[in-house]
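Reminder to self: tokens first, then the designed residues, so the page reads top to bottom the way the pipeline ran.
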């Protein structure tokens, strides 16, 4: 897998030497990272604004003073961030069962310390790929929502009935308008939603 040059990896670990080693490893693979010494510091970063519209990954130590990695993970899960921000736990041998349980609850993976550089980077790149797919899906949903918002109320009324599979004549009867008017609205809906058929439109609207 080719490195994602627009990606950003967050490193959250209370051990400065671990953070520096990981940052160096990522730089050697042309991957950009940000370092945080605690879960609290990282949560402050998240409080400053939403994540940029780019792939992300979080390398997270299990045990840290203050808020643990597991508590931070649970908070990220509650906020619905795990798809766009896959979590890879960095764990010592004693914490492997805990990390495995976290994976079952939505963490992307875990790497046991000391970890293999190649194996870790491989998992990071796979996590970034998953994040990219989630980011693109979110971007698509936002675009689709904007397109629907740009429809007139009458166009939305026609669209709902088209999606239900109603013929133009029945739509016209229900809305007390002419069949020709239905055809005009239907064509505009297809144009604005960038679809060519009612089936394509129905499939598209399932994503919002």
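Designed residues (208 positions):
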């Amino acid at each position: 897998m080719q490195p994602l040059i627009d990606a950003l990896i967050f490193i959250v670990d209370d051990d400065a030497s671990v953070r520096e080693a990981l940052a160096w490893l990522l730089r050697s693979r042309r991957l950009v990272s940000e370092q945080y010494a605690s879960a609290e510091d990282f949560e402050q970063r998240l409080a400053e604004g939403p994540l940029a519209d780019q792939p992300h990954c979080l390398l997270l130590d299990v045990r840290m003073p203050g808020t643990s990695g597991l508590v931070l993970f649970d908070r990220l899960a509650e906020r619905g961030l795990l798809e766009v921000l896959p979590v890879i736990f960095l764990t010592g041998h004693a914490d492997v069962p805990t990390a495995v349980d976290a994976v079952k609850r939505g963490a992307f993976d875990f790497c046991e310390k000391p970890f293999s550089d190649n194996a870790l980077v491989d998992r990071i790149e796979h996590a970034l790929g998953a994040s990219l797919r989630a980011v693109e899906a979110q971007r698509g949903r936002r675009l689709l929502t904007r397109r629907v918002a740009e429809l007139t109320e009458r166009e939305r009324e026609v669209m709902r009935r088209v999606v239900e599979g109603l013929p133009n004549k029945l739509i016209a009867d229900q809305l007390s308008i002419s069949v020709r008017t239905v055809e005009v609205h239907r064509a505009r809906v297809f144009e604005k939603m960038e679809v060519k058929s009612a089936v394509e439109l129905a499939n598209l609207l399932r994503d919002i």
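Residues 58 and 87 are 5 Å apart (CA to CA).
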